[in-house]
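In response to the reviewer comment on reproducibility (Comment 2.3), we provide here a single inverse folding case reported in full, input and output, so that an independent group could reproduce the run without further information from us. The structure tokens appear first.
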């Protein structure tokens, strides 16, 4: 990956950290959420670099973020949404939503429709990734691999 990709990953981590502060995430989760947001964006860039579509890259990145969020939630004994909702910010199509509204304001309706369907496709990829990971959640026995601290008997 190029120097630009490194800056993008750093920016995604900082943005995710900021979203964690905005949503009052726990102080212990903030660094993990920032790393997860940056790593999710790195996965997105890697898939794009391999020549796949934006939909595929968003889908795989969403799978990654959801799976790691689920694992971190079990390790930290925190709800999965504490990681997943904030870390997913890095791949949310905010620019697409901006372009939709801008195109409507300047009365460029064909462009607005194009941006709408592109943004809708990206949002569907995110939702599908989250759905698949959560659907298989009960069948993945992670507790076996997670080291327990001072467990009482």
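Designed residues, in position order:
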């Amino acid at each position: 990956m190029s120097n630009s990709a490194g800056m993008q990953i750093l920016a995604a981590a900082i943005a995710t950290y900021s979203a964690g502060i905005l949503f009052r995430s726990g102080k212990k989760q903030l660094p993990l959420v920032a790393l997860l947001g940056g790593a999710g964006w790195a996965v997105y860039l890697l898939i794009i670099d391999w020549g796949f579509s934006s939909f595929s890259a968003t889908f795989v990145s969403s799978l990654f973020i959801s799976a790691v969020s689920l694992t971190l939630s079990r390790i930290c004994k925190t709800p999965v949404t504490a990681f997943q909702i904030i870390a997913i910010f890095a791949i949310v199509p905010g620019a697409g939503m901006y372009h939709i509204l801008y195109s409507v304001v300047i009365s460029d309706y064909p462009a607005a429709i194009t941006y709408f369907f592109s943004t809708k496709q990206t949002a569907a990829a995110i939702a599908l990734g989250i759905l698949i990971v959560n659907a298989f959640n009960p069948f993945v026995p992670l507790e076996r691999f997670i080291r327990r601290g001072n467990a009482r008997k």
